Amino acid sequence: MKLLIGNRNYSTWSLRPWLVLKHFEIPFDDEVLQLSGDGWRNVLAQRSPTGKVPVLIDGDLVVPETIAIIEYLADRFPDKAIWPTDLNQRAVARAASAEMHSSFMGLRSHAPMNLRASHPGKVGADTVAKDLHRLEVLWGDLLAKSGGPFLFGQFTAVDAMFAPAATRIRTYALPVSDLLAEYVEAIYALPAFQEWLALALHEPWIVDDDEIDVIQGRVKPGTLA
């Protein structure tokens, strides 16, 4: 299998299925498609059915869209427990993942993922207060029930879905409870995430539109996640 991804420093949607593949030791190759530079949109249009990343290629099968890729992997490798094995927990995990996919617009618009950066104080608390409160309730409830360190005890797909939110909390030093701070640390300590992070830190490319200094004062709903 091959996973087409965007720049590791910025591409939240690429990070999610990559973590699933790497953590659950599913053999795959990856290829970075640039999200900036001359003709980058044309390259994406040629390689991706949606003109976006990520895209999973498995033989003749081409699967775009992060959640669809994760669901395919869960079906393809049922022994990996990519989702929680309990039926009820699995439903809750999928609901939380869908919420991440469709919500948290304050974080997504005002606090872009930037793994190389440290920007404490650059994101106004009022712009992300609603989303942080929701994370306190959602993550807090799941962690209290599971005992951590991940949302359902062991790392599953829902943790991959929320990993970019964890990076935003660290990058912008956003105010969260000790419980949530511990969860952020658990994400960062995950060997698969550490591998992605190391590669991101050595990337030479800069995507101006995903840098906080460029997007401040500009809301781009749906373009970041």
Automatic annotation (TrEMBL):
<dbReference type="InterPro" id="IPR036282">
    <property type="entry name" value="Glutathione-S-Trfase_C_sf"/>
</dbReference>
<dbReference type="InterPro" id="IPR036249">
    <property type="entry name" value="Thioredoxin-like_sf"/>
</dbReference>
<dbReference type="Pfam" id="PF13409">
    <property type="entry name" value="GST_N_2"/>
</dbReference>
<protein>
    <submittedName>
        <fullName>Glutathione S-transferase</fullName>
    </submittedName>
</protein>
<keyword id="KW-0808">Transferase</keyword>
<feature type="domain" description="GST N-terminal">
    <location>
        <begin position="1"/>
        <end position="81"/>
    </location>
</feature>
<dbReference type="GO" id="GO:0004364">
    <property type="term" value="F:glutathione transferase activity"/>
</dbReference>
<dbReference type="GO" id="GO:0016034">
    <property type="term" value="F:maleylacetoacetate isomerase activity"/>
</dbReference>
<dbReference type="GO" id="GO:0006559">
    <property type="term" value="P:L-phenylalanine catabolic process"/>
</dbReference>
<dbReference type="InterPro" id="IPR040079">
    <property type="entry name" value="Glutathione_S-Trfase"/>
</dbReference>
<dbReference type="Pfam" id="PF13410">
    <property type="entry name" value="GST_C_2"/>
</dbReference>
<dbReference type="InterPro" id="IPR004045">
    <property type="entry name" value="Glutathione_S-Trfase_N"/>
</dbReference>
<dbReference type="GO" id="GO:0006749">
    <property type="term" value="P:glutathione metabolic process"/>
</dbReference>
